[in-house]
Write a structure and sequence with these properties.
Strand content: over 45%
Radius of gyration: 25 Å
Structural class: mainly beta
CATH architecture: Beta Barrel
Distance between the termini: 92 Å
Number of strands: 14
CATH topology: Lipocalin
């Protein structure tokens, strides 16, 4: 039988308490993804934690600075655009969204001297349907840009999984085509690429299909 003095037992208890405290406090940090591609630093940040995936990206051009970020949780998520012109806050806009922001870009597609901001969203669920939030900056105004509906001839083969990009003067939308018996995971109809150009119709800014 082994006997321990009271002081030895006390020291052992203190050591065990400190060890448990250290283990409890040591947690994995949130995942932050940044990177560099083709010499261009990607300043967008995705932070994954128990409340969801958050996005933050700063866009700038000729004295115009736009911070695009998300906040909230999976049940109620917000997209915020904070616009500063020549260092002064000009506009703050907040939208309620469902899904995950994939990317944000700035461009002047119609070459009218006014920058546009394009925010690409991917809905929750197996379909991962693409959604676009787009605005044109005009001084202290932020005008909405409307994306035309998908042409009806593609609706029977469309099941989401869109991706968006900007190329030259066009917004590019790409999605897989499904045949009737295809499962969601495995489309067999190839990929469809659509090009949209920015035009003004009846006082509204619209991204219309460019068939040229």
């Amino acid at each position: 039988m082994i006997f321990c003095s009271k002081s030895s037992v006390l020291k052992l208890l203190v050591l065990l308490t400190l060890t448990q405290s250290f283990v409890a406090c040591k947690q994995d940090p949130p995942y932050i993804a940044t990177g560099e591609k083709d010499g261009v630093v990607d300043d967008s940040i995705h932070v994954e934690n128990n409340a969801g995936v958050y996005f933050n990206k700063a866009l700038s051009s000729d004295g115009l600075n736009v911070e695009v970020k998300t906040s909230g949780n999976d049940e109620l998520k917000h997209l915020s655009l904070d616009v500063a012109l020549n260092g002064k806050v000009a506009i703050k806009k907040t939208l309620t969204i469902d899904g995950i922001i994939v990317d944000a870009m700035m461009a002047d597609l119609n070459k009218d001297g006014k920058q546009e901001v394009y925010v690409f969203n991917q809905s929750a669920g197996s379909g991962s349907y693409g959604q676009l939030f787009a605005f044109q900056m005009d001084g202290n105004r932020m005008d909405s840009i409307i994306l035309d509906e998908l042409p009806t001839k593609y609706l029977d083969q469309y099941m989401g999984h869109d991706s968006f990009d900007l190329q030259g003067k066009h917004l590019i939308r790409v999605f897989p085509l499904y045949h009737e018996m295809d499962p969601n995971c495995c489309p067999t109809g190839g990929m469809k690429k659509l090009k949209y150009k920015l035009e003004k119709h009846s006082g509204e800014l619209r991204l219309v299909l460019d068939n040229s």
